[in-house]
């Protein structure tokens, strides 16, 4: 999952810095090491045995969760795969009764932003990030129950 997301983001967004690689790799390792089956989930989409997408929900506290590691391989885009992955994450969030879920993304992911809007997420914070090989506008999106 890590290598697939790193390669997609390098190719499509130019994220090649060591800071970006460390951020993603450490984030996934922390998620796995602190995984709580009662509070966290990760859904991995496979196509022909190849990891082609992912989304995770990780607990922050008893009432707050974070949506993380959401990506789709270009070969499965346009097939509603992203919507289905996001639906599974939101369903998990509701099943576990999290009052609040948030995520961080960046402004150029137009299709993904559309999915977040459809689910009721709203942008609550933005800032410029220059650490991932190019300047991007990061956005925090929130959804309350």
Describe the structure.
The chain has one domain: 3-Layer(aba) Sandwich (Aminopeptidase), CATH 3.40.630.30. 36% of the residues lie in helices and 34% in strands. The protein has 4 helices and 6 strands, in the order ααβββαβαββ. It has a 6-stranded mixed β-sheet with strand order 1-2-3-4-6-5, with helices on both faces. A hairpin with a 2-residue loop joins strand 1 (41-47) and strand 2. The radius of gyration is 15 Å and the shape is globular.
How are the strands of the largest sheet arranged? 1-2-3-4-6-5
Total individual domains: 1
> How is the CATH topology named?
Aminopeptidase
Kindly report the name of the CATH homologous superfamily: Gcn5-related N-acetyltransferase (GNAT)
Which of globular, elongated, flat, extended, rod-shaped describes the shape?
globular
Pattern of helices and strands? HHEEEHEHEE
Overall pLDDT metric: 93
Q: Which range best describes the helical content: under 10%, 10-25%, 25-40%, 40-55%, 55-70% or over 70%?
A: 25-40%
Summed up, the helix count is 4
Low-confidence stretches: none
What can be said about the biggest beta sheet? 6 strands, mixed
Strand content: 25-35%
CATH structural architecture: 3-Layer(aba) Sandwich
How does the helix and strand content classify structurally?
alpha+beta
Overall radius of gyration: 15 Å
How many beta-strand runs?
6
In CATH's first tier, which class applies? Alpha Beta
The N- and C-terminal alpha carbons lie at a distance of: 29 Å
């Amino acid at each position: 999952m890590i290598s697939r997301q790193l390669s997609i983001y390098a190719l499509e967004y130019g994220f090649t810095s060591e800071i970006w690689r460390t951020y993603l790799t450490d984030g996934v390792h922390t998620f796995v090491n602190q995984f709580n089956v009662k509070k966290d989930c990760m859904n991995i989409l496979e196509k022909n045995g190849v990891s082609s997408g992912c989304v995770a929900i990780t607990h922050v506290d008893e009432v707050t969760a974070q949506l993380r590691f959401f990506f789709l391989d270009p070969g499965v885009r346009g097939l509603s795969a992203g919507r289905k992955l996001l639906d599974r994450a939101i369903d998990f969030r509701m099943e576990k009764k999290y009052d609040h879920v948030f995520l961080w993304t960046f402004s150029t992911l137009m299709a993904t932003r559309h999915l977040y809007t459809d689910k009721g997420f709203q942008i609550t914070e933005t800032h410029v990030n220059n650490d991932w090989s190019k300047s991007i506008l990061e956005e925090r999106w929130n959804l309350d129950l």
